[in-house]
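During the reporting period the student researcher (J.K.) took over the structure-prediction task from the postdoctoral fellow and processed the backlog of single-chain submissions. One of the processed entries is reproduced below for the supervisory committee.
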Amino acid sequence: MSEYPTALGASTKDTITILGKDLAEDVMGRVGFGELAFWLATQRRPTSGETRVFEAVLAALADHGFTPTAIVTRMTYLSAPDSVQGALAAGLLGGGSRFLGVTEDCGRFLHDVLRGVELPTDQDRWDTLARTTVAAQREAKRFVPGLGHHVHKDGDPRTPRLFAIAREEGLEGPHLKLFAAIGRVHPEILGKTLPLNGAGVCGAALADLGLPMELLRGFALLARTAGLIGQLAEELRNPVANEIFLSVDLNNKSVPPSPNGGQHG
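J.K. obtained the following structure tokens:
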């Protein structure tokens, strides 16, 4: 028979192991969930500093109020209260380029810029690299992922805090340094000042932790799962989904079909 090797969970009649450790004796009550999530993804146990930065990212991404992901979770639960998993899945499926996906987009973008580049050794050189990077995006008529926020136009409060935590733990790596430099130099190229948003900083921080680029959005979804559970718990205590439904149902407006795809006024 074929073999299917795994270093993750395994069971025998008497024991359960995970990552080569006895689950009951070595992990439960000894390893926090954030630490375990990092360990599972990398198959190496994080340092205390790495755990702190990682968990700060999870906290930063957990909940942002009545976003589309939260609303669809509540609405799905209203429609199918017997399917908590469906409600959570509905919210997670909305994690894309406008919400949650920026974490991955920014991390990948910074990683691609840094690939094959000799890392700068001082702030002036970081700023030079950032100018080249922002100018190239402008020339290509592309946005810089993680630059700008639709609400926090004068500064995302998560951003300085995440930078501070990374610096305190000695984990401000090249992705965070490049992103900080982009924050410093982009006004002179774009002609306007935009904030570095928290989701982008999260992507840079996760990349500096050495986490797989392919999984960055997964960590954002892990964080948002906790937030969506909170949304469902609040919906149980103080339901609003039915009001949202009725506000649309009672205020929709019938209009003629638009076969040519035109927009109605």
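The committee noted the following: The longest strand covers residues 16-18.
J.K. will present the remaining backlog at the next meeting.
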